[in-house]
Amino acid sequence: MLNDGARIIDVGGESTRPGAKPVPEEEEMERVIPVIEKLRKELGDNFFISIDTYKSKVSEEAIKAGANMVNDISGMSFDPEMASVVAKYDVPVIVNHIKGTPENMQQDPYYNDVMEEVISFLENQIQYGMEKGIRKDRFIVDPGIGFGKKVEHNVEILKRLKELKVLGVPVLVGLSRKSFIGSILKNFLGKSEYPPAERLNGTLAATAVAVLNGAHIVRTHDVKETAEFLTVLDTIRGYKIV
């Protein structure tokens, strides 16, 4: 992934797909800590490792093992100690919007105005984190595509992603092969299903919209394809590629 253009490696020991069951803290640490230690030992320090967890203890042990940022799908709302750990180690934190938990988040989520609710939640969590001692320049926000959202909610977020600029921090999006892309393609092409393996082209289309609307970081499974795609896109936009 690093050779293909990744700048951050996101390591997680618990699935957060819709319907996923929680993993015990100790088991999660047994899954991720050896991986992080080995990544650092064998690949060096010239890249970021992100620990994908909502558990403060897991994040702390991961940071000690070599992780240097936290990706919390709950936006620091599931574990009251998460913000204190982030502040203690002064690491960047990705604050994700979620409605419900992974186990129940897709059970008919409802919004009066999805973007308004996302921004309100993220704004509140940034303020909460700062009160716990996290510096403003340590925050990255993620609108949480697929985390308690229907297809129309995800589409609306991407169309209005520029509105996240009001928060004054970098924006991350995770779109890679998500189910809303399969739903769009399935409905348009009249197929009975559109499995993840066939969603790369749709993912890149959604990624283009996200980046053109202000996303700074893209989380993907398809590093080579996404890096090449974004290199061309950013070159045409006039950005120097480093």
Your description of this structure?
The chain has 242 residues and is α/β, with parallel strands linked by helices. 43% of the residues lie in helices and 12% in strands. The chain contains eight helices and seven strands; from the N terminus they run βαβαβαβαβαβααβα. It has helices at residues 25-43, 56-65, 82-89, 114-131, 151-159, 179-189, 200-212, 223-237, and strands spanning 8-12, 48-52, 69-72, 93-96, 139-142, 172-174, 217-219. α2 packs parallel to α3. The chain is globular. The protein starts with 7 loop residues before the first strand and ends in a 5-residue tail after the last helix. The model has no long low-confidence stretch (mean pLDDT 96).
Question: How many beta-strand runs?
Answer: 7
What is the average of the pLDDT values?
Answer: 96
Please report the first level of CATH classification, the CATH class of one domain. Answer: Alpha Beta
Helix-strand pattern, N to C? EHEHEHEHEHEHHEH
Q: Strand count, sense and closure of the main sheet? A: 5 strands, parallel
Shape: globular
Give the percentage of residues in beta strands.
5-15%
